[in-house]
Structures are given as structure tokens and as C-alpha cells.
Amino acid sequence: MYNAISRGAMGSSGAGVRVSAVLMLGLATTSCTTWVKPGASEYELQATTARCEAASQLQAPPEMHSVTISPAREYPTTPYCNTDSQGRQTCTKPPRDYRPAVYSERDANETVRRAIVRDCMFSFGWRPE
Question: 100: number of CA atoms within 13 Å, CB side?
């Protein structure tokens, strides 16, 4: 599949832009790895990375899921009391302190895409440094 994508992805003028966008989306996938290939140029690295990122996006598109980081909670509050000049005590209990849930988005296919990019880079002769 890599060869079909690498040969066909740059065929039309719009495809190059799409591959560039896919590369930008997937930079996190390869940003921690330094790839080397004897005799290869920086351009070849960028082109191969773009091809592999495009392949990974096609084979394992982002699948976003909401993940609860912190559930919604209510914290009890402490009542406060005042005594007036006649010795009567009046207590007031403030409303509970409510904290809404905190959510984050996670991509279920991120690990799969990393593996696809890695395999693809290897198939083009690149090796991690």
C-alpha cells in the first residue's frame, strides 16, 4: 500500500496540499524519532515522511474519544455562624462548591498510526538513529 500511496499521492496538484496537511497532522508521530538513510537528502526524508504519514492516516484515521480526566464533584462547605448583640447565633451554610468534570480528547488510533509510519519508513530503507 505504501508504494501506491507514494506514487499516486503527488499526482494531482491538490494531493500535494493534502499530503502536506496530513504531514502536519502527523508530525507528533515521527517528531521523537530521528530517521537516517545513508546518502539520502533532507528532501527525501521529508517526502518519505509525508508518504508514510499519508498512509497511516488512510489506514488508521483519527478516532477521537472523550476521556474523563476528573469527574464532577461537589465539595462540602463549612457553615459560618455569627452571634448578634442579644446573644442569638445565626448560622449560614453556603452552597456546596461544585466543580464540573474535566474532559480530554484521545485518539484511539494514534499508536496504530505510529506503527504504520515506522513500518513504512523501514520499507523505504530509513532507520531510526
Answer: 2
